[in-house]
Design a protein that fits this description.
This protein is α+β, with helices and mostly antiparallel strands. The protein is 43% helix and 20% strand. The chain has a single domain, classed as Gyrase A, domain 2 (2-Layer Sandwich). It is built from 3 helices and 4 strands. It has a 4-stranded antiparallel beta sheet. Bound molecules: the ligand C[C@H](O)[C@H](O)[C@H]1CNC2=NC(N)=NC(=O)C2=N1. The ligand C[C@H](O)[C@H](O)[C@H]1CNC2=NC(N)=NC(=O)C2=N1 binds next to loops.
């Protein structure tokens, strides 16, 4: 099925199931805290691996003890789609395995 922009209501319903995620303009976003810079870097690499697997890529940044990402879907002109939430759910699983909060 082709990707379509989600309505505001659809976005809010999905965000309600993803604590820590929020709408930032036309993107969904989350930041994580980790116990060290190296732990944060490892999470970035793991997220990059999943993004290539899904062929869907966030803007992903590494801080001192933090990782931040924002994502929308370029192919529909930069709107939020189901694919962004698929990535967000996968990242949540990963982050928990890395001890991120
Ligand atoms: C050709 C390739 O499949 C596309 O460019 C993919 C790659 N990653 C992507 N990532 C995001 N966030 N949106 C896209 O539309 C997108 N498209």
């Amino acid at each position: 099925m082709p990707l379509e922009p989600l309505s505001q209501k659809d976005i809010e319903e999905r965000l309600a199931e993803l604590p820590g995620w929020s709408l930032d303009g036309d993107r969904i976003a989350r930041s994580y805290r980790l116990g060290s810079h190296f732990a944060a870097a490892a999470l970035v690499v793991h997220i990059a691996q999943v993004q290539d697997e899904l062929d869907h890529h966030s803007d992903l940044s590494l801080g001192y003890h933090s990782v931040s990402l924002t994502v929308n879907t370029h192919s529909v002109g930069g709107a939020v789609t189901e694919k962004d939430f698929e990535l967000a759910r996968r990242v949540e699983e990963l982050a928990s395995g890395h001890g991120a909060s």
